Amino acid sequence: MPIVDKEPDALHLDDGNNVQQVATISPRFNNSKVTVVFVLGGPGAGKGTQCAKLVEQFGFCHLSAGDLLRVEQNREGSTYGQLIKTCIREGTIVPMEVTVKLLENAMCSAMEEGRPGDSWATGYGRFLIDGFPRKMDQALRFDEEVCLSSLVLFFTTTEEVMLSRLLNRGKTSGREDDNEESIKKRFHTYRETTMPVVEYYNKLGKVAEVDSTASVDEVYSNSSDVIRKLFTEQSHPKVAS
Ligand code: UP5
Ligand code: MG
After folding, report:
1. What is the pTM of this model?
2. Which ligand is nearest to the Cα of residue 88, counting in written order?
3. Separation of CA 51 and ligand 2 centre (Å)
């Protein structure tokens, strides 16, 4: 699946002069047809692990913002490669225009490709957006311009558990941020910048919290209950399992 357009610098970012237009446009995807579930939680909370399982059961397209950024970082000719590399190593947030555009492009590709099943009939789709939004500006931009999110699946556990998981994964992951120094910075950004996003959605009644300290299967049992409930409450595309 092409992540971004093929030209060297093809994110087609806005130059910032279309303020009037930005204020009046409606989201690219209609949330009565396209379901977006944001998946949040600290570094190493188990977001990616749970998403992989939810895809199998519910037919989601899983888009990890971090994975899209890592692909863009390594893409030949990308204007943003060095910026992304620095942000990831330092555990800071890449400017939202880049990440939102990568997600929008990936959603468009998935909608064009389609997937088997009723939930992917023409114009319909369901997405797990993993590790996003982790800053308020991203949240507001995505909801306004790409698709109004339906739910935040929020994984919680202690920093001690997350640190131990990430150091363990770091033995084989090859990820530049799976080292103790970067992990501590990621925790800081999560507390200071991402938690306000969770609080914002919580006030809107959109957060479903799942304790991710237990085994993968136990956590999954609770995660899948949340998603089943979401689709049961929606009047469109039936649950796929
Ligand atoms: N594991 C998982 N669940 C377990 C369980 N229940 N019991 C025991 N072990 C469990 O899991 C991590 C490890 O724990 C794995 O080894 C797994 O087997 C084990 P994983 O599912 O990978 O956890 P996850 O929460 O996905 O951790 P990840 O490291 O991916 O989280 P981050 O949020 O830190 O990473 P992400 O890739 O999303 O972002 C990286 C960076 O990209 C950010 O720091 C930031 O610099 C940048 N970024 C942005 O700038 N903007 C964005 O919008 C997004 C990212
Ligand atoms: Mg992940």
Report:
1. 0.91
2. 1
3. 9
d(CA 3, CA 105): 7
Confidence of residue 3 (pLDDT cuts 50, 70, 90): very low
- Ligand 1 atom closest to Cα of residue 52: 21
Domain boundaries, the chain: 27-233
Q: Give per-residue pLDDT as tens, 32-83.
A: 999 999 999 999 999 999 999 999 999 999 999 999 999 999 999 999 999 9
Ligand 1, atom 33: closest residue by C-alpha: 43
Report which bound ligand comes closest to the CA of 193. 1
Which-ligand-closest: CA of 166?
A: 1
Which residue has 């088997």 as its token pair? 116
Residues with CB under 6 A from ligand 1: 41, 43-49, 64-66, 69, 87-88, 91-94, 99, 131-132, 134, 138, 165, 169, 177, 186, 212, 215-216, 219
Per-residue exposure over 217-235, b if at least 16 CB sit within 10 Å of its own CB, e if not = eebbebbbebbeebbeeee
Structure tokens at 111: 């909608």
In ligand 1, which atom is closest to the CA atom of 92? 46
Three-class HEC string of 109-163: HHHHHCCCCHHHCCCCEEEEEECCCCCHHHHHHHHHHCCCCCEEEEEECCHHHHH
Take residue 224 and report the two structure tokens written for it: 């899948």
Q: Please identify, in words, the CATH class of the domain defined by 27-233.
A: alpha beta
Is it the case that residue 21 has pLDDT exceeding 60?
no
Q: 29 CB contacts (<8 Å, ≥6 apart)?
A: 36, 107, 111, 125, 146, 147
Distance from the first to the final alpha carbon of the chain: 25
